[in-house]
Sequence to fold (1207 residues):
Amino acid sequence: MKSVNKTIPSIDGKGLMMGRPAFTDDLAEKNSLIVKVLRSPHPFAKILNIDKSKALELEGVELILTHEDFKRNSYTRAGQGYPEPSPHDKFVLDEYVRHIGDEVCCVAAVTKEICEEALELIKVEYEVLNPILNFEDAIDNKSIIHDEPEAHEMFPIGFEPKRNIAASYKMEVGNTEEDVKKSDVVIKQSFYTQAQAHVMMEPHTVNARIDYLNRLVLYSATQTPIHVRRILSQTLEFPLSRIRVIKPRVGGGFGGKQALHGEMLVSAVTLRTGKPSKMVFTRKEVFESSYSRHPMRFDITLGASKDGMLETIDCYVLSDTGAYGEHALTVFMVAGSKVLPLYNKVKSVRFHGHVAYTNHTPAGAFRGYGAIQGNFALESAIDMLVDKLGMDPIEFRDKNMIKQGETSPIFAIMGEGTEGTAMNMESCELEFCLNRGYELINWKNTYPYIQVSKNIRRSVGMAIAMQGSGIPYIDMGSATIKLNDDGFYNLMVGATDIGQGSDTILAQIAAETLGCDTSQIIVYSSDSDLTPFDTGAYASSTTYISGNAVYKAALKMRQMIVREAALAFKVDESIIEYDGTTIKADDKEMTINELSNRLYYNEDQKQLTSTESYVGTKSPPPFMAGYVMIDLDTETGEVKIVDYVSVVDCGTTINPSLAKGQVEGGIVQGIGMAIYEEVLYNSSGKLVTNNLLNYKIPTRKEINKLTTEFAKSYEDSGPYGAKSVGEIGIDTPPAAIANAIYNAVGVRITSLPITPEKILLEMKKREGEKR
Amino acid sequence: MVKHIIPNSLSEALDYMSKDEYKIVSGGTDLMVQKRAWAETPPKFDQNTIYIFNLMDLKYIKKENNKIIIGANYPVEKIKDFKSTPILLKKAIEIMASPALRNLATIAGNIGNASPAGDTLPILYVHDALVKIVSKNNSRIVPINEVILSVRKTCINKDEMIKEIIIPILEFTKTSFVKVGGRKADAISKTSFTGAVNVKDGIVKDIRIAFGAVNVTVVRKKEIENKYKGLSVLELQSRINEILNDYEPFIKPITDQRSNKDYRKQVSLNLLKEFINNL
Amino acid sequence: MMKIKFELNNKEYVFNEDPSKRLLDILRNNFSLTGIKEGCGEGECGACAVLINGELINSCLVPLANVHNKKIMTIEGLSETKRGKLIKDSFSKAGAVQCGFCTPGMMMATEALLNKTAHPTVDEIKIGLSGNLCRCTGYNMIIEAVLLASKEGEGLW
Fold:
């Protein structure tokens, strides 16, 4: 292969490095009105009155919008397939505020400073209501967070707002309760995960203007421009045909931008004033007023036979969606559907639970999307079981995990919000990953631990994981390729590059298929007026879904070129030879430049374009084994990650360097979730960890060795054998690190993040018990 | 009308400050963040402000008679690179925040903020550092432990500013600075331990211990140190439990967003124990 | 309002401004320098880093008064220099760029580091770039980029 499975630098990298105007805020109109939001100081309250008179008197204040200015159209901010599996429980502005940082009203003024002054002059009277600040107290609480009659589900998702339930779900294969009773060895344990924040470096940013055709044009840092356009149109009752959403370069998303944040308000301001407007979230607003990861409690029961066969998995999950139910059901289901099939030899499996509303910052999509939470719980529990069985963790997994050619009944039962799709593992190199990681981390000589100095213990731990490649029958991608004179191409895709490099790998797929150099492919992505449909950058779908669409479109373009060449040479298509630059037939020869110029200016004049779409009929999972080596300081409880070994099966890597970037970026985020990123609320429901000083993402100093390898693997249904790789990297660190800590000092930490405080406390308890 | 002043010299600055009340902005690190309003728009300076970052007459470091003298404006990144800077201070600066912040941060700022978690403060206590505080007509030299009164409270008056910090160079045979934080690049520690000893022929001639972030100010107890001076290292180590008991009542940390009090206390005592045991 | 004078990317400017304004806002809004990004506004992320008299500083923490009579270099200026071009090529080759939002700040930190230490060790690179947060990469590819720049830039620093 010429272009695929080759490392080339990302095509947009150099321009971004030089600071060229490329991101949303770089492209705002110079005279944009600044839009700022007055945010709720209360976790739950009814707004009785908003006195904006003083603020309106201020020179430079253009407009103040409150809930009275909007029709009560409920919607969901979640950018998902339509109809959305998330409840419509949000209003552009509402008379209720449901978490600290929720929107009260918004000001549009000519400068930031005037905006701020205006915000201080607005007087709001609240009736403070009893908040729910603990998700385990939410269901059937006296306080009802969504009592409004307009809130509704789009199809059955177990939505029971009167009980503070945003969604619920239950599935069972076989009879887990019976099988637990029959099992020789049983483990029962609860696990907790926290509301990790995305901390993409570019805050949520959006701007709007009315163009010369009287249309509303938005630049938005979003992962889902097409969903944004649809939701804006439906909610503001403004014609879809008069909205254009452009996604410029985006400074990271990780799921955080798979929703609308600010698009409604700038659109409303611009539509009402006719003036351009812009909104840039402060870092505090990103923390408090967008959304974060769903915190969850897993109550897991595992049963196994004496000889080490896993018989049954029973799992109840309670998830906290905060004030609004964005991605509530789907994240919850992925906590099962992309975790449980790892152990496909069980006789029975049950997965059920609820997603509860609370008065915390909402939860939503975040890389891993439930799988990281489920992986922490299940892979920790497996090690507990292994310990009780007296077995080796690797041996146990090798015996019980899913392998090439096998399947799991869960694939057919559980999808994302709906039923799933049955599939066999046509490409599954998990066994290779398991064995290769074992060697790379030097498990044999380190497990369970070695004492490296008086107070430092070095240990190893591991976990296995799987994700998906798009959502079958829901996620659709499409691509248009246009041949230009001089023989270069435009590739127009709806696929949304948010920094992961999808424009680059899609260009590589197109170049490979067309036989040309990648530099001949000019990519333009995500402009609702100019690019064809794509659901967006989420659910690990771009390489597999959008990649397949590009492959099909390129193949078609190639056929069109051959047909035109045959016409020019007056020969049969079957004798045309085309290597991407030169077209030959018998003794005749022509370059693609000559052919394209001929088509533009001379003979058989026409524009060649090809458009193709792809919708998945299955979701081939990428797999990985994650092995960690840690140094644990028994004096301070501090954990240092010495090496993190990832052996990944994502099929063919279209661009090995970018694939490695995806895996390692995911690993570091997973390490952050595992040991650094603590989320703290105070007793009145205020997020304390709302800045980068208190909320600690890993810096360069924390990261030591990362060892990343890819298994040789080929997925027949993927473009050039590729599966997706966007999320898989994040899944293993929490469980692998928890397992390594257990192997070092014999304490099992069951809640994230695993802080030195928790480790030392448990070590102290354990010493007490020993005495 | 709020006044903004960029003075050309220290005396000019002090002259302004003798007439009106001014907020002093040096590197600006803390102020630019603290002044941010509720809506998180850029800071609004609603009082008289004097910008001293550019005052060259406060930007110096020198060695004089076994002392290091550091001008109030001298950034910590440069202090770290000065060859005579005591090793403990270099260590504390090295693991403090990031280069971009260290280019703005000053020890004077650390003192002025009087945060119990200020990274360089325990080192100043261990070295018995002195602070020269000046006003238009006055100048005084105050020991570090008398400058810092409590959390965010100092003895510096409104017309005064720190001119320089004087750090005696001491002879130690072994020093230790351990900062416990969630991340290595954190500007603020969960707890920190500073230990320094001078051992000659197996006898502890000098021992100095300080704890950061475990009380309202840095904990250094000369009366405890004096008790153990003159002992042999082995004798000192055999009395480890007594030493721990001596310090225990002064280790009174709080629970906040960075850590909890039990952890801070246990780790502080663990670090002390480790230091003594490894002499 | 005060008269402020500074040299920005080798050109001198004199203008009247509020001295308490953030340098970040001045550079982005008055000079349209889009290479300077605001990631946090609290000095924690390094996306707005510039060189002031050769020292790496986060422009969100700098009141305009503090750069009076100083020399400022931003990524737009650095990109024009030999060193800047080399750093850019190295980052590109090492695959150190994902979303690119933090990268200009990273490159400024790289320039500041190499200026001080032409051949840094991995640990020195970690410290030198510790104030620049990145949420996309695993950081190691950025370290490779700095090592590459240091190697290929023999004699430039």
Q: What stands out?
A: The radius of gyration of chain A is 27 Å. Chain A is about 30% helix and 25% strand. Chain A has three domains: 13-129+201-252+257-289, 292-471+618-770, 476-615. The first strand of chain A starts at residue 33 and ends at 39.
